[in-house]
Amino acid sequence: MNARFTAEQDEIRRTLRELLTKRCTPADVRAAVDTPAGHDPALWAALADGLGLPALALPQRYGGVGCPVTELALACEETGRALAPSPLLGTTVLSAPLLLALGTDAQRARLLPRLASGALTAALAAPGPALATALALTGGNGGGWAGGGRAGGVQARRADGGWRLYGQADQVLDGHSAGLLIVPAHTGGFARSRTLLFLVPGDAPGLTRTRQTSLDATRPQGCVQLRDTEAELLGADDPGRVREALAATGDASAACLAAEAVGAAARILELTVEYVGRREQFGRPVGSFQAVKHRLADVHVRVEAARSAACYAAWATAHGEQAGGERAGEDRGGGERAGEDRGGGERAGEDRGGGERAGEDREGGERAGGPALAEALTALNAAAAEGIQLHGGIGFTWEHDAHLYLKRAKGDELLFGPVHRLRAHAADRARLFETTEIFEAIGSEEAG
């Protein structure tokens, strides 16, 4: 792994930070979250048209740039610094990879160019409490998390040669405003129970959407209700492939979320250091006291460790590696940077032949995104908590910007965690506890 940024990556960071510094101040963030959509359409247009953020990780043949997850994670780190409310997470990180991995040629040709241009936004309409399960971040995603029947959720049935959806999904990220919904639905009844993904336009008859109150207002959420709503099956009726695509998307999205959390943690740390440097007590800056220095140093170490984990997760995802160092694809040789052509102009994210799609779990094994996200959320929680404490009385008021970062940390943990489950699932995939049991058994035999 080469930890140095390329000139193109540095340019992405610099350009995006300049734009967000001008267009996404804390006052702009508070104004945007109070709008019906929960984000500023003008800012989204600038991110899409001016910088091409939605197109970063999409193949060139669909209007994308053809970059791997590393560039998208860098962009997420900058949007995390500003807590920019935008459809980037729901559209580019969660929805576009599913369309790319599962969609038919016609579906991809029809929808991906519009997503790449920013003209169409999308949302994965998995119920908020089940989102981490659907993405296989906190456990296997082969259960009945999509609901159905008395369990709630969304059900699908065939009708008139098509599909009809019934049910409700709460706490859907951007569910109230997205132009396209990717809806996981339970079908087949008891005998052939399975979860498939369906495409539902935002203006479909029988679809009702309302915005819901959320802990983190910069992550707007909506309630999606479907009453005999016509839907289009995404790809083929293959539940195994759906689970694989969701798990691969979960790993890549966890890497991007980790980078985003690192950006937020670094920013609140910067604000805290700046404040204690100018705030005086007993005739000297608060930041000059040794106890304060130690606390901030501890946070700095956490943030840098989380940044390293997030960088590795993005790099490993882009290269198809597992967290244990095993390469999921063929060994392409040292020194190759993420996103370079791998022959014939093929980029990460395009089909590699034989029906295999980028991001699928080809070898099983351990993934890097979940552990990196756990580390990043831990760092963000620590940075936000220390920021509130060290800002003193003003830091404890809801109006202070430090609370925006604390709410982001807690909100992300509710949606994609909690941290201890992220780590437990990573340990299970690595068979850490099985290994421990084996050594305990060996030790017992030797003692006997």
UniProtKB/TrEMBL annotation:
Cofactor(s) the record lists: FAD
Compositional bias segments (type: Basic and acidic residues): 327-366
Name listed for the protein in its UniProt record: Acyl-CoA dehydrogenase
Keyword Lipid metabolism in annotation: no
Keywords: FAD, Flavoprotein, Oxidoreductase
Acyl-CoA dehydrogenase/oxidase C-terminal domain: residues covered: 254-326
Organism: Streptomyces thermospinosisporus
Record domain Acyl-CoA dehydrogenase/oxidase N-terminal: where: 6-118
Listed PANTHER family: ACYL-COA DEHYDROGENASE, ACYL-COA DEHYDROGENASE FADE28
Pfam families attached to this UniProt entry: Acyl-CoA_dh_1, Acyl-CoA_dh_N
Region (Disordered): 320-369
Family statement: Belongs to the acyl-CoA dehydrogenase family.
UniProt cross-references to InterPro entries, sorted A to Z: Acyl-CoA_Oxase/DH_mid-dom_sf (IPR046373), AcylCo_DH-like_C (IPR036250), AcylCo_DH/oxidase_C (IPR009075), AcylCoA_DH/ox_N (IPR013786), AcylCoA_DH/ox_N_sf (IPR037069), AcylCoA_DH/oxidase_NM_dom_sf (IPR009100)
